[in-house]
Write a structure and sequence with these properties.
By secondary structure, the protein is an all-alpha fold. The protein contains 20 helices and no strands. The radius of gyration is 23 Å and the shape is globular. 53% of the residues are buried.
Length: 478
C-alpha cells in the first residue's frame, strides 16, 4: 500500500512526458471557443443594442459589463474543483457545465433584448424599459457565473504541464484566442448576411437568434473535443494537490493585500490597471462607431474584430521574436503604449475620412499595438514575479484584470453618452467628436501608463516586493 502513491506519481510523470504538440493544440482550441463567445457579446450585441435598437450607450455597456464583474466567483469555482469532482472529473466537469451555461444564458439574453427593443420601438426609451434592462442584467450575471465555472481550465493547464511544456501551451492558447476571433467573424458573417445597415427587431430577431444557437453549439462541441480524456490521461493534480498558493486559490482580500504589499507592487499594478483600462475602453463602442459613423452592416462591424485579431497576433509574434530581444521589456512596453496612443488618434481621424477601409486599417494597427503590449506586459510581469509567490501574484493580476475590463466597458459607454450629450450627436459630423472623446481618453491613459511603468524598478521589485509579498502571505497563515 505504501508504494502505491509512488507508483502513481511515476506513472503520471511518464504520461506527462508524452504530451505532444497535437494535444497542446487540442487544449488550445478551448480558448478559441471562449473567443467566439466573447465576440458574440462584445462584437454583436453591443452594436445591436446601441446602433440598431438605440439603447443609451452607458446603459448598454453597463449591462453587458455585469458578466465581467462576476469574476470573484472564479475563486470559488477554482477552489471547488480542487475538492469536489463533477462527473468524475475535478476540472473537466466544471468546464463542460460552464460552457453549456454560457450557451443557454447567452440565448436568454437575446430573448430579453427583443422585449426591450420592442418596447423602445413602440413607446420609446422611458422608465418602462428599465425592468427589461434589469432582467437582462440578471441574464448577463448568469452568463458571468457560467464563464467563471470554466476557470478550472486554467487549473487543468497547470495539472498537465511542466516547465518544459508550460510556455508552449500558453503561447498556443494566446494564438487560439486570436484564431477564435477570425472564426467567430466568419460564423457571424455567414449567419447575418441578410442584415443591412439599419435594422429593426423584426429583421434582427431571426438571424441573431440563429447566430446564438449555431455559434454556442459549435463552441460546446469544440469544448468537448478539446478536453475529453485529457484530465484522466495527463493530470498530475493528485501529486501536486499539496502545493501552495495558485492562481485559482487566490482570495479577493489576499489579492488586495498583495497588490499593495510595497511601493513597487503598487506601481506595477497601477500600471497594469491603467493599461487594461486604456486597452479595453473601446470594446463597447467600436462596432457602434462603425455603424453610426461609417454606415457599416452587422457583418461589416463584426469583421472589425478580425482586423484587430490579426493585428494582435502579428504584434504578439513580432514582440516575442524581435522587439523583446532587441529592446528589452520596459522599452517594448513604452513603445507599445506610444504606438497605441497614435493609433487611437488615427481611429478619430478615420471618422473624418468616413471610409470603412480607414477604420479597418486603424483598428488593425491598434490591434498590432495591443499585441505588443499584451506580450510585453505579461513577460514583464513574469520577470517581476518571485518564484515562491508566483501563483498568488499572477492570481491577483488575473482578478484585477477581469474587474478592470468590466470598469473599462462601463467607462466606454459612459464617455460615449457624455460625448453625445455635449456634441449633440445628431449627424455623422457630430458623432465623430462624440466617439473621439472615448478614443482620446484612451490615448491619454496610454501616456499615463508610460509614466507609471517608467517608475518601476526591476531590481528594487525583486529585492523589496518579494519580501513584502511573502510577509503578507505569512500573516494570512498566522
Amino acid at each position: 500500500m505504501a508504494e502505491s502513491p509512488q507508483s502513481d506519481s511515476a506513472e503520471n510523470l511518464e504520461q506527462q512526458a508524452s504530451i505532444g504538440l497535437f494535444t497542446m493544440v487540442r487544449l488550445g482550441t478551448f480558448n478559441m471557443g471562449l473567443s467566439i463567445m466573447s465576440l458574440l457579446l462584445l462584437g454583436v450585441l453591443n452594436r445591436v443594442m446601441i446602433a440598431d435598437l438605440k439603447v443609451p450607450a452607458l446603459v448598454a455597456a453597463g449591462v453587458i459589463s455585469i458578466y465581467q464583474f462576476m469574476a470573484p466567483a472564479r475563486v470559488w469555482f477554482g477552489q471547488r474543483s480542487d475538492t469536489t469532482p463533477i462527473f468524475g472529473h475535478h476540472r473537466s466537469g466544471y468546464i463542460w457545465l460552464g460552457i453549456v451555461g454560457m450557451a443557454i444564458s447567452g440565448f436568454l439574453v437575446v430573448q430579453v433584448l427583443w422585449q426591450l427593443g420592442t418596447h423602445i420601438e413602440t413607446v420609446g426609451w422611458n422608465a418602462g424599459a428599465y425592468p427589461w434592462v434589469a432582467l437582462m442584467g440578471i441574464m448577463f450575471a448568469l452568463y458571468g457565473l457560467s464563464l467563471s465555472a470554466t476557470t478550472p481550465f486554467v487549473a487543468l493547464l497547470v495539472d498537465v504541464s511542466d516547465e518544459r511544456t508550460k510556455s508552449k501551451i500558453v503561447g498556443i492558447g494566446w494564438s487560439m484566442l486570436m484564431v477564435g476571433i477570425v472564426v467567430g467573424v466568419i460564423i457571424v458573417s455567414i449567419v447575418t448576411s441578410s442584415l443591412g445597415d439599419s435594422n429593426t427587431v423584426a429583421t434582427l430577431r431571426g438571424p441573431i437568434n440563429r447566430l446564438f444557437i449555431i455559434a454556442p453549439a459549435i463552441v460546446c462541441l469544440i469544448t468537448i473535443l478539446s478536453t475529453s480524456g485529457i484530465e484522466k490521461r495527463y493530470s498530475q493534480r493528485s501529486r501536486r494537490s499539496a502545493a501552495g498558493d495558485r492562481e485559482d486559490s487566490i482570495t479577493l482580500s489576499k489579492a488586495l493585500k498583495v497588490l499593495t504589499a510595497s511601493k513597487q507592487t503598487g506601481l506595477f499594478f497601477s500600471f497594469l490597471l491603467v493599461l487594461i483600462l486604456s486597452l479595453f475602453i473601446q470594446n463597447a463602442v467600436l462596432e457602434p462607431y462603425g455603424s453610426e459613423v461609417f454606415g457599416m452592416s452587422v457583418k461589416a462591424t463584426t469583421g472589425l474584430n478580425a482586423f484587430f485579431g490579426i493585428g494582435t497576433l502579428i504584434g504578439i509574434m513580432a514582440t516575442g521574436f524581435v522587439l523583446l530581444p532587441l529592446l528589452g521589456k520596459k522599452r517594448t512596453v513604452t513603445i507599445g503604449c506610444l504606438a497605441a496612443a497614435l493609433f487611437l488618434i488615427l481611429l478619430i481621424g478615420a471618422g473624418y475620412i468616413g471610409q470603412p477601409w480607414a477604420l479597418q486599417g486603424a483598428v488593425g494597427l491598434f490591434g498590432l499595438s495591443a499585441g505588443v503590449l499584451t506580450t510585453g506586459s505579461t513577460v514583464l510581469m513574469i520577470d517581476l514575479t518571485a518564484t515562491e509567490t508566483a501563483g498568488t501574484f499572477v492570481g491577483a493580476w488575473g482578478l484585477a484584470q477581469a474587474v478592470a475590463q468590466g470598469i473599462a466597458s462601463v467607462a466606454g459607454g459612459g464617455l460615449l453618452t457624455l460625448g453625445k450629450s455635449v456634441m449633440g450627436a445628431e449627424t455623422a459630423g457630430q458623432l465623430v467628436p462624440a466617439y473621439g472623446v472615448v478614443f482620446f481618453v484612451q490615448a491619454l491613459g496610454m501616456l499615463c501608463a508610460i509614466a507609471l511603468v517608467s517608475r518601476v524598478n526591476i531590481q528594487a521589485f525583486q529585492l523589496d516586493a518579494k519580501q513584502a509579498i511573502t510577509a503578507v502571505l505569512e500573516n494570512e497563515l498566522d
